[in-house]
């Protein structure tokens, strides 16, 4: 009986530890920040011209990530890196990690590597844009997106948003250097402040020579891109936030 009691006490202790761990996770700022960001992250699926010389004139399936920056009853707009959707056709979004919806590019800038995509899917949750100006090296950040989604699919694993925790290593020539890689498929995904969940940049690339070092585009560049490349709306149309633009007097 004493042995059985000891086992029961051990089980209760384990359950208490698990419950404590669950509470700890709920209170973890990084976990909370990712929970806020996750519904806004989307997976891009598309066809792009093959870069294999043996497949000249053929198309390959490609992937990337992005995040919702504006939405309403009119639809939603998603920000991503331009190289994600460059020369793409049959552009589709996976939203909420389940629904696949069509999308179209409304603005792109190859030099700044930024693009804005629109879908008619209404009222998708949008991120909060922050600032990278006040960030210091060592700031805790997260990168959310869909790394190598085809590999996960081949293994029979469902579509889920991945998150990686790291630190801002440096800001170099208007580029965010990260102490974690940007894995293919994650490009265009949000880089967010681990405590506030505010988006401070877009995942962009990594070194070929040292894949552990990643780079991102500061969010201020994205805001300038939106201001410069989204054409002025005509009377009765809607602006970036979906508000109807009044007619000129």
Helix content: 10-25%
* Class by alpha and beta content: alpha+beta
In N-to-C order, the SSE pattern is: HHEEEHEEEEEHEEEEEH
> How much strand?
35-45%
Number of strands: 13
Return the CATH class of the domain at 38-119: Mainly Beta
Mean pLDDT equals 82
Give me the side-by-side strand order of the main sheet: 5-4-1-2-3-7-6
Task: Please tell me about this protein's structure.
This protein has 249 residues and is of the alpha+beta class. It has helices at 2-27, 29-37, 82-85, 149-154, 219-229, and strands at 41-49, 59-72, 75-80, 89-95, 99-102, 104-109, 114-119, 140-145, 162-172, 175-178, 190-193, 199-206, 214-218. The strands form 2 sheets. A 7-stranded antiparallel sheet has the order 5-4-1-2-3-7-6. A 6-stranded antiparallel β-barrel has the order 8-9-10-13-12-11. The protein is globular and about 45 Å long. Among the domains are: 38-119, Thrombin, subunit H (Beta Barrel); 140-219, Beta Barrel (Thrombin, subunit H), CATH 2.40.10.10. The N and C termini lie far apart (89 Å). Residues 1-20 and 232-249 have low confidence and may be disordered.
């Amino acid at each position: 009986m004493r042995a059985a009691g000891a086992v029961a006490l051990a089980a209760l202790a384990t359950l208490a530890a698990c419950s404590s761990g669950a509470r700890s996770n709920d209170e973890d700022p990084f976990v909370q920040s990712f929970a806020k960001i996750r519904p806004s992250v989307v997976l891009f699926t598309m066809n792009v011209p093959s870069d294999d010389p043996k497949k000249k004139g053929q198309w390959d399936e490609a992937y990337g990530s992005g995040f919702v920056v504006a939405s309403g009853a009119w639809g939603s707009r998603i920000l991503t890196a331009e190289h994600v959707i460059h020369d793409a056709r049959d552009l589709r979004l996976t939203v909420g990690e389940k629904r696949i919806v069509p999308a179209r590019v409304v603005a792109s800038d190859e030099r700044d590597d930024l693009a804005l995509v629109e879908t008619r899917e209404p009222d998708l949750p949008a991120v909060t844009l922050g600032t990278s100006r006040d960030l210091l090296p060592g700031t805790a950040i997260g990168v959310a997106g869909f790394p190598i989604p085809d590999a996960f699919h081949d293994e029979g694993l469902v579509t889920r948003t991945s998150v990686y925790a790291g630190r801002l290593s440096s800001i170099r020539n208007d580029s965010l250097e990260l102490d974690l890689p940007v894995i293919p498929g994650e490009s265009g995904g949000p880089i967010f402040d681990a405590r506030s969940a505010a988006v401070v940049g877009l995942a962009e690339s990594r070194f070929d020579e040292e894949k552990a070092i990643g780079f991102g585009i500061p969010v201020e560049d994205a805001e300038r891109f939106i201001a410069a490349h989204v054409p002025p709306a005509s009377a009765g149309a809607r602006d970036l936030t979906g508000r109807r633009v009044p007619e000129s007097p």
